[in-house]
Amino acid sequence: MPNPIELELIPQQPIPVPPTPPVIARSEIDSEQLQTLISIFANANPALVVLPQGKTFSEIKGFNVRVNENGTGVVTAIF
């Protein structure tokens, strides 16, 4: 199992506009699907995501995973 992802609070920064519009696929999910996803992250053992101290999964208002071209990525949680 890989090391858990530890999130750290960062100051807000402007998001650069991409030079060409990306292709986007999305789906709206119902509350049961959302709670299932939150439960997967919150109850994974060993932990997949470690939130900043004092923050809980129930406080998350937004969650984003970005995949970079070089195979790395960035995970962002908005509280």
The string of secondary-structure elements, in order, is EHEEE
Tally the helices.
Answer: 1
Main sheet specs = 2 strands, parallel
What gross morphology would you assign?
globular
Assign the structural class, choosing from mainly alpha, mainly beta, alpha/beta, alpha+beta, or little secondary structure. Answer: alpha+beta
End-to-end C-alpha gap:
27 Å
Number of structural domains: 1
Helix content: 10-25%
Strand order of the largest sheet: 1-2
Backbone CA Rg: 14 Å
Number of strands: 4
Task: List the topology elements.
Elements: E1 5-6, H1 31-43, E2 49-50, E3 62-67, E4 73-78
Parallel strand pairs: 1-2
Antiparallel strand pairs: 3-4
Structure description:
By secondary structure, the protein is of the alpha+beta class. It has one domain. The chain is 16% helix and 20% strand. It contains one helix and four strands, in the order E-H-E-E-E. The protein has one helix spanning 31-43; strands at residues 5-6, 49-50, 62-67, 73-78. The strands form two sheets. Strands 1-2 form a two-stranded parallel ribbon. Strands 3-4 form a two-stranded antiparallel ribbon. Strand 3 (62-67) and strand 4 form a beta hairpin.
